[in-house]
Structure formats: C-alpha cells, structure tokens
C-alpha cells in the first residue's frame, strides 16, 4: 500500500473507525452512508480479506459496514497501523486502538 493510501486509510479510521471486537476476536469497523460506496469498494480492494456488508436500510439510515478481523486484521492491517507514527493518531482513536489490542492480546 502506497503512502497516500495509508494516509487515506488512517484518516478514515480516525474519523469513522470503531476498534473493538465480538468478545472472541478483535475487529475494526467502518460504518458510513451509502453515498460513500466508492470508498468502501476502494477499501475492499486495498485491504485483502476485509468484508463489506450492506447496504442496510433501517431507522431512516442507509449505510454500508466494512469490517476487518481475523487474519486480515492481524497480518495486514495491524502491521500497517503499527508502522505509522502513533502521533498521527488523534489521542481518542489511538486509545481505542490500543485498548482493542490489549483486550484481544494483540
């Protein structure tokens, strides 16, 4: 992944990312309006093993949900995030990312 793509990915995660898990495995999730479909397709193409769900339509909301977990998270996405300067994360996002890693032994 080139530097621009890494920066775009990081920006999306800072602005919209959720760092957590299902109690058994860690996951990073992005949920945004369906008008951002092109971004989701780009993510699918550039983050091997990631999954795109939706579009969902309920409660007046129309959105896609993109998820990275399992091998894709551990072997692709986390090494990219770890290779970036932690100071590029905002503090809140960085704390959520670190908590996910601690909670799931990453």
Task: Give your account of this protein's structure.
With 106 residues, the protein is of the alpha+beta class. It has a single domain (3-103), classed as Homing endonucleases (Endonuclease I-creI), CATH 3.10.28.10. It has 4 helices and 4 strands. The protein has helices at 3-16, 37-46, 70-82, 91-103; strands at 17-21, 26-33, 51-58, 61-69.
Secondary-structure element order, N to C:
HEEHEEHH
Amount of beta strand: 25-35%
The CATH superfamily is known as Homing endonucleases
Within the CATH hierarchy, at the fold level, what is the topology?
A: Endonuclease I-creI
Q: What is the topology?
A:
Elements: H1 3-16, E1 17-21, E2 26-33, H2 37-46, E3 51-58, E4 61-69, H3 70-82, H4 91-103
Antiparallel strand pairs: 1-2, 2-4, 3-4
